[in-house]
Amino acid sequence: MEAIKAIFHYLTHLEWTQKVQTDCIFCDRNNFEKNIVYEDDELIAINNRRKAGSYHWLIMPKSHRWRDIEGLTAEDAALVHSMVALKNQLVKQSCPAVPSANVHIGFHRGRRILLGNVYWPDIISIHHLHMHVIVEPHFWSKFFKYPPWLPLMWKSEEQVVRELVKKSKVR
């Protein structure tokens, strides 16, 4: 029953209009200092507080320039490639025996116009670009919160990279 309540709460609190967060918890390192697993000049990786698998990292740029994947352009391909490279490094370092099929990687979908001033539900809870890396994901989390089967909510890192490559060829 609790699971049904949680799912209902999640679905009823999706944002159908544009929302702008004025305070970003990812821009204040005091919010996650103890969870940092990697940091360089451009990227930071942290353990997610709400683990959805054996390991659950969030990889993000330090800059708040990007709200979500919907705003990425062809010029941002290098950023996404560096995020994917960091994912590969973390997986190799922390769980090399886990098959790649048991690693779920991607982004929650952001704000996209549906009609006029109405948007598709804003799935991301923190408006700062971040990629989820979930090793051996829990079934229900993968199915409902990080669903590869529902493109309205989730996009894999492979899909994002493919779209950025296409954008770069169009220029």
Task: Walk me through the structure.
This protein has 4 helices and 8 strands; from the N terminus they run αβββαββββαβα. It has helices at residues 2-12, 77-94, 139-145, 157-170, and strands at 36-39, 43-47, 53-61, 103-108, 113-115, 118-119, 131-137, 154-156. Helix 2 (77-94) packs antiparallel against helix 4 (157-170). The longest helix is centred in the middle third of the chain and has 18 residues, at 77-94. The termini are far apart. The mean pLDDT is 86.
Compact overview of the structure:
The model has no long low-confidence stretch (mean pLDDT 86).
What level of helicity do the residues show?
A: 25-40%
Query: Order of helices and strands, N to C?
Result: HEEEHEEEEHEH
Distance between the termini: 51 Å
Strand order across the biggest sheet? 1-2-3-7-4-8
Total helical elements: 4
Strand proportion, as a percent range, falls in 15-25%
Shape: globular
Offer a few descriptive terms.
23% strand; 6-stranded antiparallel sheet; alpha+beta; 29% helix
Mind sketching the topology for me?
Layout: H1 2-12, E1 36-39, E2 43-47, E3 53-61, H2 77-94, E4 103-108, E5 113-115, E6 118-119, E7 131-137, H3 139-145, E8 154-156, H4 157-170
Antiparallel strand pairs: 1-2, 2-3, 3-7, 4-7, 4-8, 5-6
Helix pairs in contact: 2-4
